[in-house]
Each structure stands twice: as C-alpha cells, then as structure tokens.
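SEVERITY: medium
COMPONENT: batch folding queue
REPORTER: lab tech (J.R.)

DESCRIPTION
The queue accepted two submissions in a row. Attaching both inputs and their returned structure tokens so the on-call engineer can compare them side by side.

ATTACHMENT 1
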Amino acid sequence: MDNQKLKEYLKFDETDLQSNRNGQFTEKQRTRMIKDSKSGGIMDNLGAYIFIFIALIGVCVASGSILWGGFQSSNFLPMLPFALAFGCIWPLVWGGFGVRGLFASNSSKSKFSLAKAQGFANLESRQTYASNGNPDIIVYTLHIGGKNFKADKGLIEAMTQGAEYIVYYYIRDDLTALISTKNILSAELISPAR
C-alpha cells in the first residue's frame, strides 16, 4: 500500500523502502545517519561540556588552595592532599567523562543497525504546562509494535491513528532508548484503520 504523505515527510522513496525490507541501508540513508551522528552541536554535547566545566572547577579550587596554603606555611602540608585530589584526580575523572562524551557524539565510527517495529499506530499528544499554569508545549509520541518514538506534529499528520504500519528505523551503537522521529528511515502502511 502506498502512503505518499509518509514518504514525503520521512524523505524516502521506493528504493529505500525495498532496501529496508531486505535488512539493508541505501547509500543515501547511510549518509544521513552519519551526518546525524556527527551533528555534535552545543545542545547535543551539553552533558559533555558540563563534565568539562566541572573538571575546570576542580583545577580552580586546587589552584586557589595552593595559593592560599602557600602564603601560610603552616597550612601548606594539610592543603597538599586536598589540592592534589581536586587538581589531579577530580579533573581526570570529570574531564575524562566530558572528553569521552564529545568523542562519542562526534565519532564517524558509530555502528548502525536496522530495526523494525510492526503494529497499530497509537499516536499520542500531551500538553505540558509551565510553572504559572499556562500551556507550554505539546509533546508527541508514536507507540507502535512495543516501541515508543518521540515524534513531532508532522509525523502525527502523516500517519493514521489505528492503522497498521511497519516502521524501519536505525539504532546507533545499540542505544535503543534514544529513538526519535529522526531515526525512522522508512515506513509502510499494511492495513488502514478499522
């Protein structure tokens, strides 16, 4: 069954769909996945930057304690273990987490695997509210075949509630918990809603 709205929204064609049915990616899809994995914008790497900032706090605390302890020779020796812990161990641990996060999000050596979910589409929208009680944003979710996809309004409009679909999506480095609309490569309508 053909669903042109879905093809236009997810930007796939019949060649992409056929490759996904056969358990393979097309070159166009592979390029898109690598581009997505290398996006590495500030918001994508926010956690890594926070870890690096925490590491720098340790260096500042250690430097301040050495300077303060150096002016008072009676306090220098008791401050030395504190300064070493915050000046060496703290930055290595937190900085290591940050650098690892940056490399992981910007790596072109990510491993991609193709997965599929088949079932009846349960399209859900939920209104969130700001602290002052005013409506904030609408959160969209697609539930299909036991999988949940963070969606957006475009996908909700392209799919039909209660219709049966097969959704082909990619998983990066076996991170199945982080699946969103951008992971969906293609989809096909199996049967219309009853």
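ATTACHMENT 2
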Amino acid sequence: MTTQTVEAELLELEKRFWQALKDKDANTAMSLTDYPCIVTGAQGVGSIDQKTFATMLKAAPYTLNRFQIKEGAEVRLVRDDVAIVAYKVHEELTVDGKPVTLDAADSSTWVRRDGRWLCASHTEAILGDPYGRDRRG
C-alpha cells in the first residue's frame, strides 16, 4: 500500500467518523475509536473509555447538522501503524435549541491494530485570535 493510499484511507475514516456523529450512529463512531481515547478541546483534556464514550454519544447535548472538512488536510505517517491527520473543519450545529456555526482546527492520531485504523486521540481548537482577544470575557 502506498503512502498516498494510506493518506486517502485515513482522510476517509476521519470523514466517516464525522458522518457517524452527524447521523448519531454511536456504533460506527465507537468502532473507529481506540480505547482509552485521549481528547482535548475547549473543555479541557480527557481520557475516555468505551463505556463513557457510548454514554457521551447517546446523551450529546448538540446535533451536528452539517460539517465540511476543508481542503489542505495534512496527513503524516509516523510509522506503518501510527498516523496523524490534521485539518480545518466548518461545523453547523444546534446547541441548546439554537444554531451555532464554528470553524475549528482538528487533529487525530490513528493507530493500526489488527489490520484496522482506530482513532487514539482527537483534538479540536476553535479558530480565532491565538490570544483569545476575539472572545468575550
């Protein structure tokens, strides 16, 4: 398998994960995840086991209505069984009954286990001023 083929496969898996979130398809999202999965974002840092992830997916306080992974994604094959995928994403959600639109920079670390790629870590940073000057206090 060529590096380009692996890169395309990983980008497709990333899109499949997002689509699972949009479709509220917990089984697919969980089948693409390595446990415990490390996540970081605006709420902090966490290590999520399979049971916690299932609960989170079923009780998500938001609906992902639309997503678009932007052109220019970066994929780095660190080893034959470890890769990093990074990209910008546009998200349209409903949160607490209200529409929310945001742009973010995301990255995932994928590991190959038993011939399958699984997401071992995911981060999301909402785009904006790097010092937070564009956010209200």
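NOTES FROM REPORTER
The mean pLDDT is 94.
No errors were logged for either attachment.
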